[in-house]
Design a protein that fits this description.
The strands form three sheets. The chain has a six-stranded parallel beta sheet with strand order 2-5-1-8-9-10, sandwiched between helices. The longest helix is centred in the first third of the chain and has 14 residues. It is α/β, with parallel strands linked by helices and 224 residues long. β9, α9 and β10 form a beta-alpha-beta unit. α1 runs parallel beside α2. It has a single domain, classed as P-loop containing nucleotide triphosphate hydrolases (Rossmann fold), CATH 3.40.50.
């Protein structure tokens, strides 16, 4: 059976690409055929290039990221400024056309769950259409509890129960870093509440996926 995981976040810059890259590396090392898509990028293609490197040629850069725009604003606005438009139908068609040879499909959104991606659609619309399991990434710092619960609340109830939350430790932990998981426990089942440590600015995915906590988290995220 094909597994589709949609990586979204509570905000921009919280670690979505970090997680997607680690998952691609982790699955590839286990000889699992994995595809990773970042359908829309704005303000540069660094995220898509990172996924391209992790996939080791399984997909081209343009297959991973078919739509990219210069302006560092939400993709829907960036496309409009470039006098272009992207529809949900186009994105779905692209992913479905490329997914056939793969067992696991990773799709990374842009910004938070409700940030507009294209004409009248956002990450929530895309993950629902893909029938994907939501992976919600949040920076493990003060404010994360509210951001996580709001993001979960924005999901349809059936997806809320399947969603997995990943708290990513910041470079400089604060007082909430060690307590957020405990505070979230009444709302998020223990098996769906996971953590990643700080890996550094220039982490090496091949090394990171061999460390204990990272491996444990990635195994939990890809379990059937």
């Amino acid at each position: 059976m094909r597994q589709t995981l949609f990586i979204t976040g509570t905000d921009t810059g919280v670690g979505k690409t970090l997680l997607t890259r680690l998952l691609a590396e982790f699955l590839s090392r286990r000889k699992i055929k994995v595809a990773a898509f970042k359908p829309l990028c704005s303000g540069g293609r660094a995220d898509a290039r990172a996924l391209h490197a992790a996939l080791r040629g399984a997909l081209t850069l343009d297959e991973i990221n078919p739509w990219h725009f210069r302006a560092a604003v939400t993709p829907a606005l960036a496309a409009r400024r470039g006098k272009k438009s992207v529809s949900l139908k186009q994105v779905l068609a692209h992913i479905r056309a490329k997914q056939t040879p793969f067992n696991v499909i990773l799709v990374e959104g842009a910004g938070g769950l409700l940030s507009p991606l294209g004409v009248h659609f956002d990450s929530r619309d895309l993950l629902i259409a893909l029938r994907a399991t939501p992976l919600i990434v949040a920076q493990n710092r003060l404010g994360a509890v509210n951001h996580v619960l709001l993001t979960c609340e924005a999901l349809p109830h059936y997806l809320r129960n399947r969603a997995k939350v990943i708290l990513v430790s910041p470079r400089k932990p604060d007082a909430a870093t060690s307590t957020n998981a405990q505070v979230l426990a009444p709302w998020i089942p223990k098996k769906n509440l996971l953590q990643l440590p700080w890996l550094g600015e220039a982490y090496e995915p091949a090394w990171a996926t061999k460390t204990g906590l990272v491996t444990k988290t990635l195994q939990a995220l890809t379990a059937p």
